[in-house]
Write a structure and sequence with these properties.
heterodimer, A: 113 residues, mainly beta, Immunoglobulin-like, 6-stranded mixed sheet, 0% helix, globular, B: 120 residues, 7-stranded mixed sheet
């Protein structure tokens, strides 16, 4: 079965630094990999999607890379701010199963002022 | 942007009762809706996929008779937890996706704010 893992449960960094989160997957070559932000007691909010044939995607201070050889995606937040503190989830979109999403367990990011 | 609402946001019920949770897409037609469950400090686990006008597809290990899903219109899906027990206490989240169009592409899923269910 598909397995998706995020490398750490929690990450603490200083304001202004770059946060880097890792997502690894096994057993499947996905069509898309997505990153979401989730605040406590709220539903996930979509951030970025990257396709198999894309190496990198950017959106403002966010950057996602995708290495299908390593089966890994990296999610970067540059010039981090305390408001970036949240749980970040990566998810595989399983193309041949109706486009359903399988989520990693999330990484809780805390940005200290 | 696309908005998905859930009602209620919180519900507390007694063991043995049934609880209905509504998921609505407010500004688009959702051909597919998904229901997830999330326990504290854990990720979202997909429970079932529902397509408008057809029966839901449940993930392995999810009891279809306990978690009844109805997707009667393009803007509304409901999840009914029947004969709820304390172990059903969780955060239930729905998502909605509109039609992908020609070529079989899948559009973004939009998530609701979640419903916190507590069964006493």
């Amino acid at each position: 079965s598909q397995k998706i893992e995020q490398n750490s449960e929690a990450l603490n960094i200083q304001e202004g630094k770059t946060a880097t989160l890792t997502c690894n997957y096994t057993n499947y070559s996905p069509a898309y990999l997505q990153w979401y932000r989730q605040d406590p007691g709220r539903g996930p909010v979509f951030l970025l999607l990257i396709r198999e044939n894309e190496k990198e995607k950017r959106k403002e201070r966010l950057k996602v890379t995708f290495d299908t050889t390593l089966k890994q995606s990296l999610f970067h937040i540059t010039a981090s701010q305390p408001a970036d503190s949240a749980t970040y989830l990566c998810a595989l979109l399983i193309y041949n199963q109706g486009g359903k999403l399988i989520f990693g367990q999330g990484t809780e990011l805390s940005v200290k002022p | 942007g696309a908005v998905v609402s859930q009602h209620p946001s919180r519900v507390i019920c007694k063991s043995g009762t049934s609880v209905k949770i509504e998921c609505r897409s407010l500004d688009f037609q959702a051909t597919t809706m998904f229901w997830y469950r999330q326990f504290p400090k854990q990720s979202l686990m997909l429970m079932a996929t529902s397509n408008e006008g057809s029966k839901a597809t449940y993930e392995q290990g999810v009891e279809k008779d306990k978690f009844l899903i109805n997707h009667a219109s393009l803007t509304l899906s409901t999840l009914t937890v029947t004969s709820a027990h304390p172990e059903d206490s969780s955060f239930y989240i729905c998502s909605a996706r509109d039609y992908g169009g020609a070529g079989g592409t899948y559009n973004e899923q939009f998530f609701g704010p979640g419903t916190r269910l507590t069964v006493l």
